[in-house]
Write a structure and sequence with these properties.
five-stranded mixed beta sheet; SCP2_sterol-bd_dom; alpha+beta; 22% strand; Nonspecific Lipid-transfer Protein, Chain A
Protein backbone atom coordinates (compact mmCIF):
# COMPACT_ATOMS: atom_id res chain seq x y z
CA UNK A 1 0.00 0.00 0.00
CA UNK A 2 1.33 3.43 -0.93
CA UNK A 3 0.83 6.88 0.50
CA UNK A 4 -0.62 9.50 -1.82
CA UNK A 5 1.71 12.03 -0.20
CA UNK A 6 4.44 10.20 -2.17
CA UNK A 7 2.76 11.49 -5.29
CA UNK A 8 2.05 14.95 -3.89
CA UNK A 9 5.70 15.54 -3.06
CA UNK A 10 7.05 13.97 -6.25
CA UNK A 11 9.30 16.01 -8.53
CA UNK A 12 7.99 14.71 -11.86
CA UNK A 13 10.88 16.26 -13.77
CA UNK A 14 13.18 13.62 -12.25
CA UNK A 15 10.95 10.55 -12.60
CA UNK A 16 11.55 8.10 -15.42
CA UNK A 17 8.67 6.21 -17.06
CA UNK A 18 9.84 3.04 -15.27
CA UNK A 19 9.81 4.79 -11.89
CA UNK A 20 6.32 6.14 -12.62
CA UNK A 21 5.24 2.60 -13.49
CA UNK A 22 6.49 1.30 -10.12
CA UNK A 23 4.89 4.18 -8.22
CA UNK A 24 1.44 3.74 -9.80
CA UNK A 25 1.64 -0.02 -9.30
CA UNK A 26 1.79 0.56 -5.52
CA UNK A 27 -1.51 2.47 -5.40
CA UNK A 28 -4.83 0.74 -4.80
CA UNK A 29 -7.97 1.82 -6.58
CA UNK A 30 -9.19 3.43 -3.34
CA UNK A 31 -5.96 5.42 -2.97
CA UNK A 32 -6.17 6.71 -6.53
CA UNK A 33 -9.80 7.70 -5.94
CA UNK A 34 -8.66 9.64 -2.86
CA UNK A 35 -6.01 11.33 -4.98
CA UNK A 36 -8.74 12.24 -7.47
CA UNK A 37 -10.62 14.08 -4.74
CA UNK A 38 -7.70 16.49 -4.29
CA UNK A 39 -8.41 18.77 -7.28
CA UNK A 40 -5.01 20.48 -7.24
CA UNK A 41 -3.04 17.22 -7.03
CA UNK A 42 -5.21 15.53 -9.66
CA UNK A 43 -4.73 18.46 -12.02
CA UNK A 44 -0.98 18.40 -11.44
CA UNK A 45 -0.71 14.65 -12.06
CA UNK A 46 -2.74 14.86 -15.29
CA UNK A 47 -0.74 17.86 -16.49
CA UNK A 48 2.53 16.03 -15.81
CA UNK A 49 1.40 12.83 -17.53
CA UNK A 50 0.13 14.61 -20.62
CA UNK A 51 3.15 16.92 -20.60
CA UNK A 52 5.40 13.90 -21.00
CA UNK A 53 3.54 12.43 -23.96
CA UNK A 54 5.43 14.64 -26.40
CA UNK A 55 8.81 13.43 -25.12
CA UNK A 56 7.71 9.79 -24.85
CA UNK A 57 6.36 9.84 -28.41
CA UNK A 58 8.06 7.46 -30.88
CA UNK A 59 7.94 9.25 -34.24
CA UNK A 60 9.49 6.28 -36.04
CA UNK A 61 6.45 4.19 -35.05
CA UNK A 62 3.97 6.81 -36.22
CA UNK A 63 5.27 7.21 -39.76
CA UNK A 64 2.90 9.51 -41.66
CA UNK A 65 0.01 9.06 -39.23
CA UNK A 66 -2.27 12.09 -38.84
CA UNK A 67 -4.80 11.86 -36.03
CA UNK A 68 -6.42 13.80 -33.22
CA UNK A 69 -6.85 11.66 -30.12
CA UNK A 70 -9.16 12.93 -27.39
CA UNK A 71 -8.70 11.71 -23.83
CA UNK A 72 -11.64 12.14 -21.45
CA UNK A 73 -10.61 11.40 -17.88
CA UNK A 74 -13.66 11.09 -15.65
CA UNK A 75 -13.49 12.02 -12.00
CA UNK A 76 -14.74 14.59 -9.52
CA UNK A 77 -14.51 16.90 -12.52
CA UNK A 78 -13.95 15.66 -16.03
CA UNK A 79 -10.69 16.57 -17.73
CA UNK A 80 -10.14 16.57 -21.47
CA UNK A 81 -6.78 16.50 -23.20
CA UNK A 82 -6.01 16.05 -26.86
CA UNK A 83 -3.02 14.51 -28.56
CA UNK A 84 -2.40 15.58 -32.13
CA UNK A 85 -0.13 13.32 -34.16
CA UNK A 86 0.93 14.69 -37.51
CA UNK A 87 3.72 13.27 -39.68
CA UNK A 88 6.10 12.31 -36.91
CA UNK A 89 5.23 15.00 -34.37
CA UNK A 90 3.08 14.89 -31.28
CA UNK A 91 1.52 17.88 -29.56
CA UNK A 92 -0.71 17.83 -26.50
CA UNK A 93 -3.29 20.38 -25.47
CA UNK A 94 -5.60 20.71 -22.50
CA UNK A 95 -9.30 21.08 -23.21
CA UNK A 96 -11.64 20.19 -26.01
CA UNK A 97 -10.84 21.72 -29.40
CA UNK A 98 -13.17 22.15 -32.35
CA UNK A 99 -11.24 19.39 -34.10
CA UNK A 100 -12.88 16.11 -35.01
CA UNK A 101 -11.05 13.36 -33.11
CA UNK A 102 -10.27 10.17 -34.93
CA UNK A 103 -10.64 8.38 -31.61
CA UNK A 104 -11.85 9.32 -28.13
CA UNK A 105 -10.72 7.36 -25.09
CA UNK A 106 -12.93 7.63 -22.00
CA UNK A 107 -11.93 6.28 -18.59
CA UNK A 108 -11.74 7.17 -14.91
CA UNK A 109 -8.61 8.32 -13.07
CA UNK A 110 -7.66 4.86 -11.86
CA UNK A 111 -7.88 3.25 -15.30
CA UNK A 112 -6.09 6.21 -16.90
CA UNK A 113 -3.12 6.01 -14.54
CA UNK A 114 -2.93 2.24 -14.92
CA UNK A 115 -3.02 2.58 -18.72
CA UNK A 116 -0.41 5.34 -19.11
CA UNK A 117 1.95 3.78 -16.57
CA UNK A 118 1.95 0.42 -18.35
CA UNK A 119 0.20 -1.31 -15.44
CA UNK A 120 -3.11 -1.86 -17.23
CA UNK A 121 -3.96 -4.02 -20.20
CA UNK A 122 -5.87 -1.84 -22.70
CA UNK A 123 -7.62 -4.82 -24.32
CA UNK A 124 -8.85 -6.12 -20.95
CA UNK A 125 -9.88 -2.62 -19.92
CA UNK A 126 -11.87 -2.24 -23.15
CA UNK A 127 -13.47 -5.69 -22.91
CA UNK A 128 -14.54 -5.04 -19.31
CA UNK A 129 -15.86 -1.58 -20.27
CA UNK A 130 -13.44 0.25 -18.01
CA UNK A 131 -12.09 1.95 -21.12
CA UNK A 132 -14.60 3.26 -23.63
CA UNK A 133 -13.51 3.97 -27.18
CA UNK A 134 -15.41 6.08 -29.67
CA UNK A 135 -14.12 6.13 -33.22
CA UNK A 136 -11.17 4.27 -34.74
CA UNK A 137 -10.66 1.19 -32.56
CA UNK A 138 -7.73 0.13 -34.74
CA UNK A 139 -5.91 3.38 -33.96
CA UNK A 140 -6.73 3.02 -30.27
CA UNK A 141 -5.33 -0.52 -30.21
CA UNK A 142 -2.04 0.69 -31.66
CA UNK A 143 -1.47 3.68 -29.39
CA UNK A 144 0.83 1.84 -26.99
CA UNK A 145 3.40 1.33 -29.74
CA UNK A 146 3.50 5.10 -30.36
CA UNK A 147 4.73 5.95 -26.86
CA UNK A 148 7.55 4.80 -24.60
CA UNK A 149 5.44 3.07 -21.93
CA UNK A 150 7.07 0.63 -19.53
CA UNK A 151 5.58 -2.82 -19.26
CA UNK A 152 3.80 -3.50 -15.95
Amino acid sequence: MADTTDLASLDFANVTPAEFNRLVKKFSKKEIQELSNDAALRSRVLKEVFGRMETQFRPESAGSLRALIRWEVKGETDEVYETKIDSGTCTVSHGRSDGDPRVTLIMNDYEFLKLVSGNGNPVTMFMTRKLKINGDIGLASGLTRLFDIPKG
